Amino acid sequence: MEFQDNNKSHEAEKPEEVKIKEYDKRRKNLGGMKTIPFILVTEVCDRFSTIGFHANMITYLTQQLNLPLVKASNIVSNFNGTASLTPLIGALIADSFAGRFWTIIVGSIIYELGLISITTTALLKSLHPPPCPSLVDCKEASSFQLSTLYLSLFLLAIGLGGTRPCVMAYAADQLDMSKSCVESRSWNFFNCYYFILGLARLAAVTIVVYIQDNVSWGWGLGIPTIAMAVAFMVFLSGSPLYKKVKPGGSPLVRVIQVIVAAIRKRKAVAPEDPSLLYQNQELDAAISVHGRLLHTTQFKWLDKAAVEKYGEATDSSAPNLWKLATVHRVEELKSFLRLLPVWAAGILLVTANSHSSSFNTQQARTMDRRLSNSFQIPPASMSFFGIMTVIIGLVLYERLFVPLVRRFTRNSAGITYLQRMGIGLLFNILFSVVAALVEKKRRTVAENHNLVDNPKATVPISVFWLVPQLSLHGMSEVFMAVGQLEFLYDQSPESMRSIALGLFWIASSVGDYLGTLMVSLIHEHTGHKNNWLPDRNLNKGKLDYYYWLVTGIQAVNFVYFVVCAWCYTYKPLEEVMEEDSVSV
């Protein structure tokens, strides 16, 4: 009887074991390349709609709302700054409790509401002033009309705060991004990601901008709105396939806990042997899925947070994390502190470029844009050349540059993240130099043909003079933008990756606000007669002086970056494998 009872008990457990095995099997089948199209379609349509509006936003503000150039350019820059600030909030929410999936969902809904709102401002005549084709004594948008615009831009910025820091990280969550697996691939995730976004941007600056300039702003803004709604439905349809990584709790709280614990033990003496510092794999399991961070010798005063005193840690209960931190948690903070100086170099880069898109569009508007007697290139579509450079440059980088350089460096990626970023900064300096020279040439031609006082006149110089500077800016993106994304993702702790990618946008935010401040000061203090950046007539300005100033700022920034890169130490990680772990 006893044998039979044991046998029945054993048989009763079998269904449970089967359920566990089926669950593990389903969990292992989640994620992978099959999920990437569902996720990237959200980012592609986000960029398609954002670029479709942003590329021509300066035209909408100056031609449809009749705003002065500097005021309109500052609105563009301030929108960029706000839309780049909200991703940090979205990243904190995602990494702390909501998770990336739900943060993307909510962000996409709010973003769609913003697109509907901005489209409405173009459709309803009461929401914009009457046309002013002469550009003389134009009636500017009223306070009510501007407030409607600001509400639309605010919704767009909030929505981007949910999608921008999470979509790329969520796509990477679906793949094995361990160092060994990344090195074994014949393709780079970040290059492919940026390449696909480049195609979306290309479609936006050609199709959408053409419709805005030649059909109507209602359709020009309505098409991106419809595209984003479709993308949202596609993203939702892929939900059963996604690997959903649970948030590991607030990274901000963990950082503060380490600092508090270190301050409390400021008089403690850290052991010379780092293996004596407190470690707890079970406690750190949720925030070290892909491997634990190993001890480093930088910021040694933080090690005191992991000095274990008698009675602080027991096997029966977790320690008070405000008094005792694990080595992994201490190293999370160290990793974050190490990458901040390098990240900061991106701020002045954005400051230098914050108004270049608006100014390039205004330059193109004054130049000869004819491709034939019946067709002119829309001014905002000139960014086509920069985007095409990015698309072609990424392919050449992946297929030619990396294999060639790898022979000399023995690095699987060809060059390091920091070297890639440094080359990008150099390309951007060249962009500013060429932009200054081209603007000087454009203004000289206007003076020689007595067109300085005619803001509507077409200066007899081909718009293709702008192509070299746009191409150099594209090459800067290939190296700097993609390199910075790789650097922030790889060098940040895995539980803070949304926040790290949020930092990418924070650099854009701070840079845009600084750019707005710089342009406002230049406009205010360069006088009325010889103003560098005049309100209506670019021919009377000194835009080339602005580009030379930007060149000097970038040169100083490059020196700062080289110093930071020279001093940087890459994070060491104990990578988790299926059967064992290995230090990398």
UniProtKB/TrEMBL annotation:
A Pfam family per the record: PTR2
Subcellular location: Membrane
Main localization, broad class: membrane
GO CC annotation, single: membrane
Protein name: Protein NRT1/ PTR FAMILY 3.1-like
Topology of this chain in the membrane: Multi-pass membrane protein
Highest taxon above the source species: Eukaryota
Parts of the chain that traverse the membrane: 101-124, 149-171, 192-211, 217-236, 377-397, 417-438, 499-522, 545-568
An example Gene Ontology molecular-function term: transmembrane transporter activity
Family membership noted in the UniProt record: Belongs to the major facilitator superfamily. Proton-dependent oligopeptide transporter (POT/PTR) (TC 2.A.17) family.
Keywords per UniProt: Membrane, Transmembrane, Transmembrane helix
